[in-house]
Design a protein that fits this description.
There is one protein chain. The radius of gyration is 16 Å and the shape is globular. Helix content is 35%, strand content 22%. The protein has helices spanning 7-12, 18-21, 38-47, 82-87, 110-122, 130-142, 155-165, 179-183; strands at residues 30-35, 53-60, 65-72, 76-81, 97-104, 188-193. The chain has a six-stranded antiparallel beta sheet with strand order 4-3-2-1-5-6. It contains eight helices and six strands; from the N terminus they run ααβαβββαβααααβ.
């Protein structure tokens, strides 16, 4: 399991230049973000966690691209160059917050990796589940209700469902899965801090 961290502790982890680690990044690594945006703060408060976003690296060897498969509010499921977070996330500025890359310490076959990513690619352009954040908040506050499955996603649901298609199941509580639940998995191992 990746260790519990505060925002201050994340900032103390040595930042590794992206161009130095880019050749070593691989499909299936998981990116965690600790954003400093209003929406990020809402997620962090609701889930009592520093993490506000999570996505999966997809490395296209043929094109030489490192991409992030993610579910983004108001946009939906997309594939975006990971480097965009570092240079031009919004209005020509880098992502406001910290980012780490983790490994899943489980041997997955090439076929399992392919199923993991293929599922996410098949879901491209599906909508972000904007209302799920409100439903999660109500379930947390009133301590009742369960998540009903639909084809819209929040970021952590996408990561969970992709890996489930590849044969790996992340634990979740009855009412939601957040970046924190994925971070707490016994097989998550911190590799790099890139922002």
């Amino acid at each position: 399991m990746a260790i519990a961290l505060t925002k201050e502790e994340i900032k103390e982890i040595q930042k590794v230049p992206y161009d130095k680690i880019r050749p070593y990044l691989k499909t299936g690594q998981i990116v965690f973000c600790s954003g400093s945006y209003l929406f990020s703060g809402i997620i962090q408060r609701l889930t009592k966690s520093v993490w506000s976003h999570v996505g999966i690296i997809y490395k296209d060897e043929e094109l030489g691209r490192v991409l992030l498969l993610e579910a983004e509010p108001y946009i939906g499921i997309r594939l975006i160059p990971l480097s965009k977070y570092l240079k031009d996330y919004k209005n020509g500025r880098p992502y406001k917050g910290q980012m780490v890359i983790t490994d899943l310490k489980v041997e997955m076959t090439p076929d399992e990796h392919a199923r993991t990513i293929s599922f996410g690619l098949d879901e491209l352009s599906r909508p972000y589940d904007n209302w799920e954040i409100i439903r999660i908040m109500l379930r947390i506050l009133f301590k009742k209700g369960k998540r009903t499955k639909n084809r819209d996603y929040i970021c952590s649901e996408l990561v969970r469902d992709c890996f489930a298609k590849g044969g790996y199941l992340f634990k979740m509580n009855d009412s939601y899965v957040s970046p924190q639940e994925i971070w707490q998995d016994v097989n998550i191992e911190l590799k790099y801090r890139i922002l």
